[in-house]
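Q: My labmate handed me this sequence with no annotations at all. I'd like to see what the chain might look like in three dimensions before we decide whether it's worth expressing. Could you predict it?
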Amino acid sequence: MQAVILAGGRGERLRPQTDTVPKSMTPVKGKPFLEHQILLLKKAGISDFLLLTGHLSNVIESHFREGSKLKVHIEYSVDSHPLGSGGAVKNAAKLIQNDFLLINGDAVTPMDYKDMITQYKTQSIPILMTAYDNHDKLIPNNIRVEPDLTITGYNRNNPNGMTHIESGILAIKSFVFFRMMPETSVFSIEDDVYPKLNRYRLMKAFVTDKPFYDINVPERLKKLGEILA
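A: Here is what I predict for the chain of 229 residues:
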């Protein structure tokens, strides 16, 4: 499968570092965070990557180029101005394959992606979302997973009725996903696409006990250094 990574964020909470280095290129144990992501996906047999970039996109392209250094293939879709998570995917439509993984470029879940891809393919699921079971209860739940693994709710502001946490990883049939997008060019997947997918019960959960780790605030970078190789 193709891996599409959202790597265009400005990283306001990591400034002033992100004035000159894209958030996804934040150094962790001597490597850019995005490189750790790509290598983890490569272990699952993924070799085809599409990076959705924006802020300081030239820094990302200069480091990875076409991907030969990591023995993968990398393409780029560059947003000339902020489009939101949904708009960035829509802008890259011509480069996106029929089946793809969509991954946030500022968080990583150290899980075996092969298991998720197997569930997605064998069960012919339109959209499969990785859902952390949140056994440690360190942060509030934001999605509701039914007993049959259908996802029927998303609310990042109110955890009442929510059962799991979205980990920022989706396996997607593109023809379904793009049909749920609004007509506008600037929009959010979470706010503008998830409600439609939930209404039509098009999303299932891949439940994992592996928490995700993000780089949105400086104090989390130390923890990441302990997790990533």
